[in-house]
Amino acid sequence: MSFGSFDSGDDGEAMSDINMTPLIDVMLVLLVIFIITAPLLTGSLKLDLPKVDAPAAQQTPTVLQVGLRKDGQLYLADQPISLQQLTARFVAAAKQSDKTEVHLSADTAVPYGDVARVMGAAQAAGLSRIGLITQPPAGAASTAAR
At 63, which helix (H) or strand (E)? Predict the structure, then answer.
């Protein structure tokens, strides 16, 4: 045997191990090809759109801020309102957009029945997005800041 020879001494025997290097090379080349061609496969249409002086479409839903004090007084955006007037406002808002949200802030001493009446009036008008506004406890603000 000469110096630097790669002869393993097994003359004529087939190698039983699979050489993984060519497989990995091919897979990496395919990966690069897919990464480069994937953005090109997305269909995009190049258009020269006309320019008009129209206001932008309203994307944010309309929000009705409703407040309920412990004495039973209802407020719509800090203005006193009766339940009948509020119901009429709910109907008008539902006709304008079905995505109108009602944010209900009620005092802790308000009876549950009063809150349920306001929620029922909103649902009867066709408004289904009703949120109850709360405040975190005093200790929660300090633990959330950590």
Answer: strand 63-68
